[in-house]
Amino acid sequence: MTKKKIKHIAVIDIGKTNAKLVLFNAESQQQVAVLSRANDVIDTAPYPHYDIDGLWQFMLDGLAELHAAHTIDGISITTHGATAALIAGDKLAMPILDYEFDGVEAEFADYDDLRPEFSETLSPKLPIGLNLAAQIYWQSRRFKDKFTDVTDILMYPQYWAWRLTGVKASEVTSLGTHTDLWSPDAGDFSSLVNGQNWRSFFPPVRKASDILDMIGNEIAQQTGLDKDTPVVCGIHDSNASLLPYLGAVTPPFSVISSGTWTIHMTVGGSTAGLDAARDSLANVDAYGRAVPTARFMGGREYQVLMGDENPEIGAEDLDYIIEHGVYVLPSFVAGVGAFPDSIGKWVGDENALNIKQRGAAVALYLALMSRQCLALAECGETLIVEGPLAKNTRYLSILSALSGKPVHGSQDATGTSVGASMLFETETAPLELSDAVKPYVNSQLNDYAAKWLSLID
């Protein structure tokens, strides 16, 4: 807790596609203002990396703008996973690597001999740089001289917290996100960390809600904020999505966090059904507990299939797709999701569809993929969807029909930001779920779903 009265909380929310600065009213948890920019990747030597300077300037400018308009009393941070900063003293030892860089795979043969068993980490083997330890191993092999300068490894939310406060920390939600670095059952670093002598690089583990420090004079001068503005340790974005519901919804329940990734997490669920070959894993929540999780790149696939189109879909459009046997099959992003080895394709006459019918086919596809993910992560008794998919009412209604469970769309499109704002222990309004959607009704839906599954290679 902090003695300072917290009225407005600024959340730095860095997603894989976009970075946002969101201001919340701490009491009502209502969004006051949002600023955003693209999360650009710089595709130059030594490897594709994030535009850290651009993001930092966006944060400073945004904090100044929001503070001038509303006053900021605290700062929280949430970011995407599979990302860490290698620090040499008080600066980056190397640029922060983009996890979609496939060059990391050049060291997979050696790395695979070192990575722990799934039973230890509940972290499946993933392509490109999605296993963070594989990135670090690649950097240690390809940039040996620079790696000898490394003094600290900071998970991505904690990197930004350090930039704001000068305090270095580690935190379990980012450590436990398919990194190969963490053992959820042991609540400690994995055998790989010890075997590679990396343990000393990781600062002490702090709670996501711990106030690391105040921003201090330099940041205060650059932004106009009070130098005593507190900054919390920060949290991985999917786990931030869980926070509003922990303690407020009776387990087991599932939260579907949507964005670039569509991530299905079941609080109170069993990890027994997880399949390392199907992009299912255990996340670690803010309290250190394993949360069975399965995911696919739903936002990226929607972009591939629909571009910028977002048509209003009617039940008649869904009926048309089912009646005419049009199917979208996974996967349009290779190597991830419940069907990582399948190649995405259309079955049926794709070219005969109008834009609404195409959108209906994609909504059916996304809901069918979510059903598969929920089967891996043990579907909860209540389903809550946050992020962009919460506004896709046809997706919600199909998912309700397929699962037989009540499905609630989050009333706030920035669910990760809301959760991150709750890291400040303020007096907040009680959580109220939106009304459950009405399930889509079509007597042929289950047959359509079974046929869809049978068509997947």
UniProtKB/TrEMBL annotation:
Domain of life (superkingdom): Bacteria
SUPFAM superfamilies documented for this protein: Actin-like ATPase domain (SSF53067)
A Pfam family: FGGY_C_2
Gene3D superfamilies: 3.30.420.40
Listed GO biological process terms: carbohydrate metabolic process
Keyword set, alphabetical order: Kinase, Transferase
Keyword Transferase: yes
Domain Carbohydrate kinase FGGY C-terminal: 251-427
InterPro entries to which the protein is assigned, alphabetical: ATPase_NBD, FGGY_C_2, FGGY_Carb_Kinase, FGGY_N
Occurrences of domain Carbohydrate kinase FGGY N-terminal (ranges): 10-243
GO MF assignments: kinase activity
The family this protein is said to belong to: Belongs to the FGGY kinase family.
Protein's UniProt name: Carbohydrate kinase
Source organism of this protein record: OCS116 cluster bacterium
